[in-house]
Design a protein that fits this description.
- This protein is mainly beta.
- Helices cover 10% and strands 31% of the residues.
- It has 8 helices and 19 strands.
- Strands 3, 4, 5, 7, 14 and 18 form a 6-stranded mixed sheet that branches. Strands 1, 2, 6, 15 and 19 form a 5-stranded antiparallel sheet that branches.
- The chain is globular, with a radius of gyration of 26 Å.
Length: 449
């Protein structure tokens, strides 16, 4: 029993607690047809949760040559796979560069499927775990102070026609926007939930089947396990003496594709961009070479590195079509990045950019192939602590005016986006020379406040 539970028990205060389940099934990316002799992606087609499987498989992102085959045959290669999970809602492209990896949709429509030949084309190696909120959970709804208690959760319930009590629901929450704003101003945590932790268990299995010519010593891969949380930039405020208005300024959030790793040992003059190393002409009209950039050490991601000559945001007013342009005045504008030429080893061992991402776990383990039976499996139990009271903005607003005309009525639906849950965890496995499968189980513990 936790200290918090002991205190509540001593004071005879009873708080509901729910274990919110994380996703344990995922879209099937690769075919299970036994007649196929190689890994074959599933043809792109619409799917939903009924088509999911109980495992997730890694995606190859690097395949580097490391030398000739001394026994004859094809060049020896070194591959790198990624398999990752984001706690919470799916991540899609938005106006900002994504600080989380884009996740595979849990459902795909026919129109979206037509954009790809196979599901592997849409697959980034990352899935969504959910587990932070469930808008259809009545039990979770009854734990919110702002929620209208579902009828089935009432102790008195009836249809009124047989002498029973009419359908009703009690709540101490205001019924209009004005009173709700006053309440949340006086007590910002009036509508809140207490998040304890997310507990996950991963069964990792090496599923690469070695060639008959390989020796037993070559059947072992290396897996790097990472649990990260993006660091959100601090917002600063000043008061303009010209317009007499507050001005808020903050840096752009980190970009997962280009800000994930950083090390001073990786320069553009090395393997990060071989076109710089070979003095390739950058500007044909002037003949200027890009060798002048060879000493620079930009941050980088799994496939791209950040711009070394970024454009600085100089917009002091709102620009049409540009998200919050004036908010980031004076800061470098994130770009899509440039594809790097780093090897599988370079990416596997690269240090995390701790200015942009907080590291919860970073460790390296070995994992044999399926050929070695039990040695090909590894169980990783993960506890991601929150221990945080998370506040919510109450109930949604309607367009219906109150009799006073000073405010609007509130609907029965609650807002589900937390106000102070700044970032969500990312669990990532980088596997060298080994394609891995993961079976996931877990939940998030949430209590009422």
């Amino acid at each position: 029993m936790s200290f918090r539970s002991k205190v509540l028990d001593a004071l005879d205060i009873h708080k509901k607690t729910i274990k919110l389940q994380c996703n344990e099934t995922f879209p099937k990316i690769y075919s299970e047809d036994a007649s196929l002799l190689a890994l074959t992606p599933v043809a792109s087609a619409a799917y939903n949760r009924s088509n999911h499987v109980n495992y997730a498989v890694s995606k190859q992102i690097k395949n580097s040559n490391i030398g000739p085959n001394v026994g004859g045959g094809a060049t020896v290669k070194q591959s790198l796979d990624v398999l990752g999970f984001v706690v919470g809602d799916p991540v899609v492209n938005s106006a900002y560069k994504n600080m989380y990896p884009i996740t595979m949709p849990t459902n795909m429509s026919s129109s979206a499927a037509e954009l790809h030949t196979t599901l592997d084309d849409a697959y980034t190696g990352f899935h969504t775990l959910g587990g932070l909120y469930d808008s259809v959970s009545t039990e979770l709804q009854t734990m919110r102070k702002s929620a209208v208690t579902p009828f089935e959760s009432e102790t008195m319930f009836g249809n009124g026609g047989d002498g029973g009590v009419n359908d009703h629901s009690h709540t101490d929450w205001p019924d209009n926007t004005l009173d709700q704003l006053r309440l949340l101003t006086e007590n910002p945590y009036a509508d809140s939930l207490y998040y304890h932790s997310t507990r996950l268990s991963f069964l990792l299995t090496g599923i690469t089947i070695p060639d008959s010519s390989e020796k037993a010593s070559n059947h072992r891969g290396v897996v790097r396990m990472l649990i990260l949380r993006p660091r959100l930039p601090t917002a600063k405020m000043r008061w303009s003496g010209v317009s007499g208005q507050p001005m808020i300024n903050m840096d752009y959030p980190p970009h997962f594709d280009t800000d994930l790793f950083y090390t001073k040992t990786k320069t553009l003059g090395g393997r990060m961009d071989t076109s710089v190393l070979t003095r390739q002409v950058q500007d044909a009209s002037t003949g200027q070479h890009n060798a002048r950039k060879s000493h620079l050490t930009p941050s980088f991601g799994l496939d791209k590195y950040a711009a070394v000559d970024p454009v600085i945001n100089q917009k002091t007013t709102v620009q049409s079509g540009v998200a919050n342009s004036q908010l980031h005045y004076g800061h470098p504008i994130p770009t899509e990045g440039t594809s790097h030429t780093l090897s599988s080893y370079d990416v596997l061992t690269a240090p995390i950019n701790r200015d942009k991402y907080a590291v919860v776990v970073d460790k390296m383990v070995t994992l044999d192939t399926l050929h070695h039976g039990v040695a090909s499996k590894r169980i990783e139990n993960v506890v991601i602590p929150y221990n945080k009271k998370v506040k919510f903005p109450g109930r949604k607003t309607t367009d219906t005016d109150m009799p006073s005309g000073l405010s609007h009525q509130l609907s029965d639906d609650v807002e589900i986006e937390p106000v102070n849950f700044q970032s969500r965890p990312i669990i990532m496995f980088l596997s060298m020379d080994q394609k891995i499968s993961a079976q996931v189980t877990g939940y998030t513990t949430i209590s009422e406040t």
